[in-house]
Structures are given as C-alpha cells and as structure tokens.
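Human: If only I could read backbone structure tokens as easily as an amino acid sequence. Take your time, and here it is.
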Amino acid sequence: MHRKSETRGSAEGKVGAMTRAEERDLMERAIAGDRHAAEQFIRAHQASLYAYMLRMSGRPDVAEDVVQDAFVRALTNLHRFDFRFRFSTWLFTIAKRLYVNACQKHKPAYDSDTVGAWAGRGRGPEAPTIDDEVTINAKEAIDYALAALSDEQREIVVLFHQLDWPIAQIAEYMDMPEGTVKSHLHRGRMRMRSALEQHATFRAHVEEVWAS
C-alpha cells in the first residue's frame, strides 16, 4: 500500500483545505443568496465527493447521479445546516444516504479503469507509458484488496488514504469514537496487506510501485 503522504491529491480535492472560519463565512453568504459562494462550495468539494462515491460504488453513472443530487439537496437546505459540524461532513452524509438508496437499484462493481489514481496520478490521453502501466496495475491491485474489506473498513480506508480526512473528521462523519475508527483503519490495512500477499500477481504490482 502507499504511504499516507503519497496518497494526497491536489488541493481542490481535499475536503480539509478550507478553514472553519472561511467555511462559515462562505456558508453564511450562500445562505443569504450569494450564488458565487455556493459555486465555491461546489468547486471545493465536487472532486473529492465524486472520488469517494466512485470508490464506494465502482460505477461512474451512480457516482455522478449521487454527487449531483447531494449538491442540490445540500444547497437547497443550507438554512438547516448546523455550524457545529464541517460542511464536508454534512455533504458526505447526504451523499451516503443517497448512495444507500441507489444501491437498491444498482449492484456495486469495482472498475479499476474508471477510478481515479490512488496516489493522485491520472491517466493522460497519450499512449500509455511504462509508468502508466505500473500505476494502472497498482490501482487494480488496490481495488482487489479494497473488495476484501467490510463496508465500514473500506469507507474509512478511502476517506483516510484517498481523501486525506483526519481521524477526528472521519469519526464525526461515521458517528463512532476515534479509537474505533483507528481500529477499523488498522484492521482494514492489515486485511488489504493479507489479500495482496496471497495474490502473487497483485503483490508484484504493488512491489512495482515501491520500486519505481
């Protein structure tokens, strides 16, 4: 698996990039009808929310529908927002509820070719290079390992490693003690490591990343 420092994406993909004071000011302006403030919220959270939903569902169509619906619902109900929480936590909670409903109609499937790079490296339009192939192979291996986790473990691993959420925010979002989050994260990583070690091809793919 990648180290945490290697899994951070661009600034716009981080839900924690905005301070609480900046978020509150933006929220108050959006509630007052400032469309520019609302657009800033969308730009700040769209990429990370989509990446999260894509990892959870494995389906771009489901992820897109959930993200769009989540923003509509959040922006429509801004006046109900509780400032004790982070906007990102509230938004992701709305999206998760929508996803649970969507699961009744769509069976999740893990599609490595459509999931964003675990370490923030995308695939360009040019012909694949050796580095591209190594990255793609690593994504397939990680998707395989993620599929071995429980729903809670997978969600926590994705939030922590891909979206760079701190333990405290994950605990707030998941509504569980920080110690429980750390336990799920530890067991999830150990389970992923075990799954990869038992699969010679995927183990080799991960080792390629460490060697590159």
In short: The domain at 121-211 is CATH 1.10.10.10 (Arc Repressor Mutant, subunit A). Residues 153 and 188 are 5 Å apart (CA to CA). DSSP finds nine helices and no strands in the chain.
